[in-house]
Amino acid sequence: MTSPDQTLLDATTAARLFKALGDPIRVELVGLVRRTEGQEACFCDLADQFDMPQSSLSHHLKILVRAGVLSRERRGTWSWYRIDNAAIDTLAAVLAPGGPLRDASACCG
Amino acid sequence: MTSPDQTLLDATTAARLFKALGDPIRVELVGLVRRTEGQEACFCDLADQFDMPQSSLSHHLKILVRAGVLSRERRGTWSWYRIDNAAIDTLAAVLAPGGPLRDASACCG
DNA sequence: CACTTGGATTGACAAATGTCGATACAGGCG
DNA sequence: CGCCTGTATCGACATTTGTCAATCCAAGTG
């Protein structure tokens, strides 16, 4: 009748991360960072891959950082982005067989 | 400079699914269906778990169905929802170590 | 200090989203 | 057929989101 208590907290966390990835550009961004040496990429490298204004890209990156999917580090003139693996792990766990959203009798047995 | 070609399609698909899960209520909904016997639940059961108007719940379920996360089947008077495991698998694969968003040298070695 | 460059922030605006009450529709049942 | 019950859809509204141009700030260079 009332909204679920304990699980709602996890659902909120998961939803926040899912939401951050709920845009093709942001999925691409995370994928690009992941494919970069050391899972770290600077803004300038990312900007080369997208045909869009610099401000838009910065905006999407900010959303990913705010959600905890990426972290930003300013090194001299350039901004470097890297993946927060804990966040990805959280989502992977949610979707894994036996996790909150996936029955244990999944693909793998 | 131009937007990535091949991967963009996958990113769009993934983003569509992520977006559908980008709300705590919808995460809860999928979790509830998952925990139900046979991964199938009727609207009435789900409605008991949430303190919100029936129309809102129906709206969220529609979003999940439209995105392909759930499927709806009308059986007599009641609507039954079940998880589309292919969709969950798609996202799990995206987040898995070695997947598009996760470095291979992840948690598991 | 003046200038340039990388990148973040702001402002404006259209479009999408979440929420709710009201209404419509579909399937039993009298 | 008329009525109830379960669920979907509609209409209105406030909030959020994505996009772009413009501006601002920080760091390096002359």
Give the topology string of chain A: H per helix, E per strand.
HHEHHEEH
| Strand-pairing-aware structural class of chain A | alpha+beta
Number of domains of chain A: 1
* Biggest chain contact: A-B, 46 and 45 residues
Total helices of chain A: the number is: 5
> Could you give a short account of the major beta sheet of chain A?
3 strands, antiparallel
Q: How big is the Rg of chain A?
A: 16 Å
Q: How much is the average pLDDT of chain A?
A: 90
Assembly of the depicted chains: homodimer
Note the gap between the termini of chain A.
35 Å
Q: Categorize the overall geometry of chain A.
A: elongated
Side by side, the strands of the main sheet of chain A go: 1-3-2
- In total, the number of strands of chain A is 3
SSE map:
2 copies of one chain form a homodimer.
Chain A (H helix, E strand, L loop, with lengths): L5 H15 L3 H12 L4 E3 H6 L5 H14 L2 E6 L2 E6 L1 H11 L14
Chain A binds a DNA duplex (30 and 30 nucleotides) through α3 and α4.
Textual characterization of the structure:
- The structure is a homodimer of 109-residue chains.
- Chain A is of the alpha+beta class.
- Chain A has a 3-stranded antiparallel sheet with strand order 1-3-2.
- Chain A is elongated.
- Chain A is built from 5 helices and 3 strands, in the order ααβααββα.
- Chain A has one domain (9-95): Winged helix-like DNA-binding domain superfamily/Winged helix DNA-binding domain (Arc Repressor Mutant, subunit A, Orthogonal Bundle).
- Chain A starts with 5 loop residues before the first helix and ends in a 14-residue tail after the last helix.
- Residues 1-5 of chain A have low confidence and may be disordered.
- In chain A, strand 2 and strand 3 (78-83) form a beta hairpin.
- Chain A has helices at residues 6-20, 24-35, 43-48, 54-67, 85-95, and strands at residues 40-42, 70-75, 78-83.
- The structure holds a DNA duplex (30 and 30 nucleotides).
